[in-house]
Design a protein that fits this description.
By secondary structure, the chain is mostly beta strands. It has helices at 56-63, 66-70; strands spanning 19-20, 27-28, 45-54, 80-84, 88-92, 95-99, 111-121, 131-141. The protein has a 4-stranded antiparallel beta sheet, covered by helices on one side. It is elongated. The termini are far apart.
Length: 150
């Protein structure tokens, strides 16, 4: 109680955490401070398909471009390649890494190929799995031609 005896002092005890506490002249205010947190949940790949695909520009070059003009009737032999659920994956710290090496692929069409990965993740405790499509690189296949003169 205040020295004046009018009841405007602090209450003897705080029961509750907001509003008035047994004294109409005293109010307890609760402040909440929010701090953002980032949590990383591990998510692996359920399946992965690696694709090597001849670019549209290279396809055009073979069929209707300068190569097709030099060699009439030139056509695409095998412009798309895919490898499904091969390779190995695992966590390197918090990052999931997938590795696959395709050796001695007998590419039949010259030009530039785009390498992509398609797949589906396992999901986490708070989110369902999701699909992904990643362009991971490219490579070129050269064509060597020769002309014989008599």
């Amino acid at each position: 109680p205040a020295p004046a005896g009018d009841g405007r002092g602090c209450p003897a005890s705080l029961s509750g955490n907001s509003g008035t506490v047994g004294n109409p002249y005293y109010t307890v205010v609760v402040w909440t401070d929010c701090t953002p947190h980032k949590i990383t949940l591990p998510e692996r790949a359920n399946w992965v398909k690696a694709v090597a695909s001849l670019t549209p520009k290279s396809r055009e070059w073979i069929t209707r471009g300068s190569l097709g003009i030099r060699y009439p009737g030139a056509y695409l032999h095998h412009p798309d390649w895919s490898w499904f659920n091969l390779g190995t994956g695992g966590f390197d710290g918090p990052v999931y890494t997938w590795r696959y090496l395709a050796e001695r692929v007998q590419v039949a069409d010259p030009g530039e190929y785009t390498l992509t990965l398609d797949g589906y993740t396992s999901g986490t405790e708070v989110a369902a799995g999701r699909s992904f499509h990643l362009v991971v690189g490219s490579f070129e296949v050269a064509v060597f031609t020769s002309t014989l003169k008599h």
